[in-house]
Amino acid sequence: MSRFDHLDLDPRLLQLLVAVVEERSITRAAGRLGVTQSAVSHGLERLRAIVGDAVVVKSGRGVVPTAHAEALAVRARELLEALRGFAAAGTFEPARLVATVRIAANDLQRDLLLPRLFARLHDAAPGLTLHVVPSEVPSAEMLRDEGCHLVISPRPPEAGDIVHKRLFEDGYRVFYDASQRDAPATREAYEQAEHVTVLRDAGRALDIDRVLGAAGVQRRFVVRVPDFAGVRPFVRGSRRLATLPGLLRVDLLRGLAHAPVPVACPPMPMYMVWHLRYQTDPMHQWLRRELEAVVAPALEAARAA
Question: pLDDT at residue 5 above 70?
């Protein structure tokens, strides 16, 4: 049993082991490593003391690695490759990436941004897989437990280890079926209508509903659905209204008419959110840059819709 600690083993000894096993000659191993034969012999003595094995034995004019040394050389190659990867961690090459990126987003930001984002990511990194999960009301924990690389949400969690950056801003609109009614032109007409809204699984109302309620705007919600995709069937063919982010007109609420909200409404910001541990990670920095790059064309396409 070796009395040496594993920390006595340094990468140069691993490199020496691989060279001797592959070359089967101390002379050739020394030439390959650019050191003297005595340096290789000294290194072999250190290896023998650490691993408790002869490492090589004489065979004719050369040496032959022991079976144990052959097995150790396999592990040494893996460790050396890992060390090379560690040293090159700052050099990120998307084309060599084989990984799954997990992004949390609800249906608005998912449909608006992520198809464009994935197209860019896939072009640069064919080995990448995108896994989209609902963000609901995002928490710091979903970013801390490494289950999510990035969240896109109007509600960044407030925590010292959570970072966010604004991507864009959207305005709220009143959606309605123009075949059934006109847009509400006054606050009174707006308050008298029946309304459809979204209540996420977490049970928290939309920001606009909380803001208008706090401002004293009285609305009667007759339908609450769990996501934006569920709104259109309850507005279409009725006189009901839905007050939602205007960008939903591009896809999920396409076909419904929309108009300004006849009461004061704040804009809706949208952020990308990540954990501080990814702040300087090359892959994550690339991911964030690619996401920012798709925002302008996505908004331009939305304005043209």
Answer: no
C-alpha R_g of the chain = 31
Q: For the packed helices 11-23 and 67-87, what is the interaxial angle rounded to 10 degrees?
A: 130
Q: Tell me the two tokens of residue 25.
A: 């000659």
| CB neighbour burial string for 134-143, b if at least 16 within 10 angstroms, e if fewer | ebbebbbebb
Output the CA–CA distances (angstroms, integers) from residue 296 to 33, 37, 167, 251, 304, in the order listed.
53, 63, 9, 17, 12
Tokens of 58: 């004489």
- In 3D, which of 113, 150, 117, 114 has the Cα closest to residue 135? 150
Strands 242-245 and 172-176 come out as antiparallel
Task: Tell me what pLDDT residue 88 has.
Answer: 54
Q: Which residues contact 88 (CB under 8 A, 6 or more apart)?
A: none
The encoded tokens of residue 31 equal 């030439």
| Cα 236 → chain centroid | 36
With beta carbons less than 8 A apart as the criterion, state whether 69 and 56 touch.
yes
28-44: b or e for each residue (b if 16 or more CB lie within 10 Å)?
A: bbbebbebeeebbeebb
Distance, CA of 6 to chain centre:
36
| pTM higher than the cut 0.85 | no
Tell the burial category of 88 from Cβ atoms under 10 Å away from its Cβ (0-12, 13-18, 19+).
exposed
Which pLDDT band, with edges at 50, 70 and 90, does 2 fall under? very low
Give the type of residue at 119: A
264 Rama sector, left if φ>0, alpha if ψ -120 to 50, beta otherwise: beta
Question: What is the Cα 219 distance to its own chain's centre?
Answer: 38
Cβ contact 173:259 at 8 Å: yes
Say how many C-beta atoms besides its own lie within 10 A of residue 95's C-beta. 9
